[in-house]
Amino acid sequence: MSEQTLHVSEDLKFGKVEIAPEVIEVIAGIATTEIKGVYATRGNFAVGMAEKFGLKSPGKGIKVELVDEGVRIDVFVVFDYGVTIPVVAQKVQSNIRQALINMTSLGVEEVNVHVVGVQMDKEEPISEE
């Protein structure tokens, strides 16, 4: 996927604009974490190991597929316990779509939200006296 880029502008007067899929992943990742009720996005094992060594990956948990009709995005998220999943998922979809339109003017064909976990509130340990 890293060899592919999206051609945004073919205006030969100033040159062309290309956007790498990694940029779209970062934009979608940030737009996802802005939504209240989203605990985190879930990346793969390699991303998890890199983060243990201090490397941040704002595009983790985001899969971008370039298709003829535009961009297809899959988001893998962990929600906070107690939220209404369809409502928060719809807010995630809307925020990603709006962020990509505002920043890149790209057509977004689909934003698929995959809920891969629910984060339970951490309870305070009960001390025995």
List keywords for this structure.
129 residues; alpha+beta; four-stranded mixed β-sheet; two-stranded antiparallel ribbon; 6 strands; 31% strand; elongated
Give the arrangement of secondary structure elements:
Blueprint: E1 6-9, E2 17-19, H1 21-33, E3 38-41, H2 45-52, E4 62-67, E5 70-80, H3 85-104, E6 108-119
Parallel strand pairs: 5-6
Antiparallel strand pairs: 1-2, 3-5, 4-5
Helix pairs in contact: 1-3
Overview in brief:
The protein has three helices and six strands; from the N terminus they run ββαβαββαβ. The chain is 32% helix and 31% strand. The protein has 129 residues and is an alpha+beta fold.
Question: How would you explain this protein's 3D organization?
Answer:
- With 129 residues, this protein is an alpha+beta fold.
- 32% of the residues lie in helices and 31% in strands.
- It has helices spanning 21-33, 45-52, 85-104; strands at residues 6-9, 17-19, 38-41, 62-67, 70-80, 108-119.
- The strands form 2 sheets. Strands 3, 4, 5 and 6 form a 4-stranded mixed beta sheet that branches. A two-stranded antiparallel ribbon has the order 1-2.
- Strand 1 and strand 2 (17-19) form a beta hairpin.
- It is elongated and about 55 Å long.
